[in-house]
């Protein structure tokens, strides 16, 4: 495929989500090559990014997940190297990676998100439970893929859940648990794709169920009321833009039985494996996986204008 030049698919990397990133990257690489793109695998954990310049790559497809891939750092390096890349820029990536500051921006913009408290080892757990209700969700502020996340049923278990989350980040957030239907809303360019409703075993959509089991059921079309789906898709675009995101991404949301909903977080470099959600949503609109990969790659850009 012409006009794309030499493309690096950045995969692997040093984050806790390396394994999934390699799975995403291999899928993308095969798809781009199938479409005639001159694409090559590139693992930033094994090579220095400056090799991208040395080896005259024209653009980068970022298939890195988690820190150093989704948090603005790789994006900043590519800005300096002047190599256009897929997905959000430096600020959008950094902001979306930080669940706490994402919520602050969303609240300011009128995007519904669950109630929360920033907690520390010395927090008054009775008070936290009192404020947010039980059960609640405890998670690190800057990790993806439900890593370090616990659904806590009893007040006595809060300190232990805190310690688990704190292993991954010195910032830990406790969040109101929302019982309801789990939804995921994908953004591609200026469009919100059809919602996917996730039905996990015992409602437990954890790391294992997310990537390695086939018991989780995905519904696309989602089967929720059309007007609610329209409203969520409209707000998804707003939630994406207000964080300064671009290119593509995926928001996770919860729909309560009463029809109200809350956005949990924004992923700026979502999974692209065979199990993944953005490819599923694109397929529902008639876009096969290889076409989706090319479409995302076409959106590769730099934040700032090059100096004159």
TrEMBL record:
GO cellular component, one term: cytosol
Cofactor binding remark: Binds 2 magnesium or manganese ions per subunit.
InterPro entries reported in the protein's UniProt record: ATP-grasp, ATP_grasp_subdomain_1, D-Ala_lig_Van_CS, D_ala_D_ala, Dala_Dala_lig_C, Dala_Dala_lig_N, PreATP-grasp_dom_sf
Listed GO MF terms: ATP binding; D-alanine-D-alanine ligase activity; metal ion binding
Pfam families: Dala_Dala_lig_C, Dala_Dala_lig_N
Cofactors that this protein relies on: Mn(2+); Mg(2+)
PANTHER family: D-ALANINE--D-ALANINE LIGASE, D-ALANINE--D-ALANINE LIGASE B
Name of the protein in its database record: D-alanine--D-alanine ligase
Gene of this entry: ddlB
């Amino acid at each position: 495929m012409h006009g794309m030049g030499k493309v690096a698919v950045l995969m692997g990397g040093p984050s806790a989500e390396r394994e999934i990133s390699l799975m995403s990257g291999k899928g993308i690489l095969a798809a781009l090559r199938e479409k005639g793109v001159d694409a090559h695998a590139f693992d930033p954990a094994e090579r220095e990014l400056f090799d991208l310049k040395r080896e005259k790559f024209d653009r980068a497809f970022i298939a890195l997940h988690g820190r150093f891939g989704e948090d603005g750092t790789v994006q900043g390096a590519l800005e300096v190297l002047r190599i256009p890349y897929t997905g959000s820029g430096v600020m959008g990536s950094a902001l979306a990676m930080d669940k706490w500051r994402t919520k602050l921006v969303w609240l300011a913009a009128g995007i519904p998100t669950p109630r929360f408290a920033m907690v520390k080892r010395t927090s008054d757990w009775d008070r936290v439970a009192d404020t947010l209700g039980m059960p609640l969700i405890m998670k690190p502020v800057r990790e993806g893929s439900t890593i370090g996340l616990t659904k806590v049923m009893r007040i006595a278990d809060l300190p232990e859940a805190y310690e688990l989350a704190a292993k991954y980040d010195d910032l830990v957030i406790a969040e109101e648990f929302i019982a309801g239907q789990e939804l995921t809303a994908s953004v591609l360019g200026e469009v919100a794709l059809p919602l996917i409703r996730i039905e996990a075993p015992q409602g437990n959509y954890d790391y294992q169920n997310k990537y390695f089991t086939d018991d989780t059921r995905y519904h696309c079309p989602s089967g929720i009321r059309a007007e609610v789906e329209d409203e969520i898709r409209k707000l998804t675009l707003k939630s994406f833009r207000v964080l300064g995101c671009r290119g593509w991404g995926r928001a996770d949301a919860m729909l309560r039985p009463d029809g109200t909903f809350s956005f949990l977080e924004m992923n700026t470099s979502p999974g692209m494996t065979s199990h993944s959600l953005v490819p599923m949503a694109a397929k529902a609109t008639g876009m096969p996986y290889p076409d989706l990969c090319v479409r995302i790659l076409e959106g590769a850009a730099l934040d700032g204008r090059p100096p004159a």
